[in-house]
Specification:
Layout: E1 5-16, E2 19-30, E3 34-38, H1 45-53, E4 60-65, E5 68-69, E6 80-83, H2 95-105, H3 110-123, H4 139-151, E7 157-161, H5 169-186, E8 189-194, H6 197-203, E9 206-211, E10 214-219, H7 221-226, H8 231-236, E11 241-249, E12 252-255, E13 258-261, E14 271-277, E15 283-285, E16 292-301, E17 306-311, E18 317-322, E19 331-335, E20 342-345, H9 350-360, H10 366-375
Parallel strand pairs: 3-8, 3-9, 6-7, 7-8
Antiparallel strand pairs: 1-2, 1-4, 4-5, 9-10, 11-12, 11-14, 12-13, 14-20, 15-19, 16-17, 16-19, 17-18
Amino acid sequence: MAENTIISFQNIYKQYDESMILKDISFDLEKGKFYTLLGPSGCGKSTILNLIAGFTQATSGSIVLDGKTVNTLPPNKRKVNTVFQDYALFPHMNVYDNVAYGLKIKKAAKDQIKEKVMDALRAVRLSGFEKREISEMSGGQRQRVAIARALVNEPEILLLDEPLSALDLKLRTEMQYELRDLQQRLGITFIFVTHDQEEALAMSDEIFVMKEGEIVQSGTPIDIYDEPLNNYVADFIGESNIVKGTMIRDYKVEFAGKVFDCVDGGMNENETVEVVIRPEDLVMTRPSLGNMKIIVQSQLFRGVHYEIIGEDPEGNEWMVHTTRKAEVGEEVGLAFEPRDIHIMRIGETEEAFNTRLSEYAVVNGTMVQETIDMEKGVDLNNDI
């Protein structure tokens, strides 16, 4: 366990009656980072938060907080606070009294309470709102009151259980910036639970993608978006085109009836794989200029782009995000680069996946591109 690790889950299982909610969960979280647990309802995200907070106990395994095993330590003995989905504010108290409530329960001195409450309100940019009634606050302001109430106890870890789900789209987007900014200013560890992949991508230092009580893949938002481990992650993190393919050899893959250069390796020759290309990485062009051709089946205007669905000669369906319009029935070309093709090995574990990436993935594809250029007879010493 690294020196800056603040939480460590070691082979955690959690069972309710006959149902296994968490299955062999292990991870280390560092101090001062923004982590997100991402997955559909019922996958075990909130259970992990409850275990960290001490609201429930693991069936087996160890939870280490700041170097101490805390499996049976009660919630009030942990330097952890939780912001719930409904905020759980007291409607009969004003902002000041809501934030001060926990300190009053602890019988802190009045001058100490005032100082800490004002500091907490300043941190969430609610100075001057001390006497405001909760009923007079907007959804975003109520959320910040709930965060201030948690911060006033000076937690080392702040747990946030889907706190943006009740907000409208515009306010939810604004609060993503607010939360990220707050975490960076305070420098404490945030653990955020959501089923919204856009929230996870926008705010996190690291994301844990969950499915049925297990962590399927973890990594930075860019890592997970650009290199999904499997079909589930690729489909859950943004829109994806996923088609069957064959890995001819390292850096060569066949799909849609053609062989393409790619930047992946480490698989068996002629191994069946799944190929992912994001809709925004496909450039719609004239049929003669594309890597492949499709016939446009449908088109929807999404505000910032058109979403075009087309079919290639092999019967594969492709989604394209573009600012250009197309006509249903029109033949268009799709252009993309080798780095836009992402290969998923069927049934690969996260450990094996990460090992393969470390061995074969090269920053910006430099070595891979050199290999492709040499095969094409390109003079690597020619700058033109």
